[in-house]
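Workshop exercise sheet. Pairs work together: one partner reads the sequence aloud, the other fills in the structure field after running the prediction. Swap roles for the next sheet.
Pair: D.N. / O.F.
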Amino acid sequence: MKFEFQVQTKIQKPVREVFDAVYNPRKLEGYFTTKSASAPLDEGTTVMWEFADHPGAFPVHVRKVVPNELIVLEWAAGEGGYDTRVEMRFVQLDAESTMVTIAESGWKENERGLKDSYGNCQGWMNMSCCLKAYLEYGINLRKGFF
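Structure field:
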């Protein structure tokens, strides 16, 4: 069995605003990477994400970007030694709403891979809920969350 998942969240904002809130490091810091995001998610770059509630910075390799549609990332699996793949899709539903879908795959098919995939599924669902709260209501749900 492949360890992979997908989460989705409808956000009541235009697709360009939603995409920019993930792409733009200053906005990403406002609800997700609560310590820092080193640079925009430009295709072919490696950026560093750091969270106030988790020690250390995480290198994020940006593999593909299609503005207002897709961001593909790779980063280290929890056990290390290999990367998983994250695909974020942005679909404009109408002038004022966007569906964000986040899928991650690529864990080793062992007990640790299963555990890590569940943890990341939780993390991406948290991220998408925080994105929604940030864009629709201007609040940072991660502050004091963990």
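Discussion prompt: Residues 111-137 form the longest helix (27 residues). What would you look at next?
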